[in-house]
Amino acid sequence: MASSWNQKWQQLVNTAKAEQKRLIRYVCIGFSSLFLTTGLYYLLSTVLFPQSSRTLLYVLVVILVSWLNYEANSYFTFEKKRSVATIVRFATIAVIATILNTILFWIGYELLHLWDLLVIVLNCGIVTLFTFSSHRLFTFHENPWRHLARLKSAFFKE
User: Fold this and answer.
1) What pLDDT shows up at residue 42?
2) Is residue 10 part of a domain?
3) End-to-end distance of the chain based on CA atoms, in angstroms?
């Protein structure tokens, strides 16, 4: 059992090393997105629409920045040409990430009463991990459904 975990850990480490350059590009785009998200959110929530729902404004900003992320990541990070299939897969991940982002923002800002900009920064870290792995294995992969079969066999022994 221990050797099985060691093998899986070593596989993970080897995969991380192989993906290092791509991950660095993804993180750079992510930091750009963080600054853009924070700047747009601040502009909308404090200057243009201070009386509006901050959660709604945040969702609108996340949707806009998600589209810019798709453009940047398809070109720079994953070096894939845009296609209908990747756009649909990206949109699927973006919707899931937006829901996750919104729930986390609502919990942090509305329930825990944390500073809204702090919640945005924390959300970006959490959602970045989810979206990078999802885009790498699903959105921009030549055979995205192959990984679902591997996950199923890894977690559900028949």
Assistant:
1) 92
2) no
3) 18
Q: What percent of the chain has pLDDT over 90?
A: 15
Contact 94, 86 (CB under 8 A): no
- 12 confidence band (pLDDT: 50, 70, 90): confident
In which band, very low, low, confident or very high, does the pLDDT at 5 lie, cut at 50, 70 and 90?
Answer: confident
The one-character DSSP state at 50 is T
Asked if the structure places residue 149 within a domain, the reply is yes
Q: Which domain holds residue 92?
A: 20-155
* Tokens standing for residue 42: 């601040």
Q: Cβ of 158: how many Cβ atoms within 10 Å?
A: 4
- pLDDT, residue 59, reads 84
Residues 6+ apart with CB under 8 A from 96: 130, 134
Q: Which of 119, 52, 64, 137 is nearest to 94 (CA)?
A: 64
Closest listed residue to residue 121, CA positions, set 134, 132, 105: 105
Give the C-alpha separation, 86 to 142, whole Å. 10
Q: Is residue 14 part of a domain?
A: no
The 3-class SS string of 120-147 reads HHHHHHHHHHHHHHHHHHHHCCCCCHHH
Domain count of the chain? 1
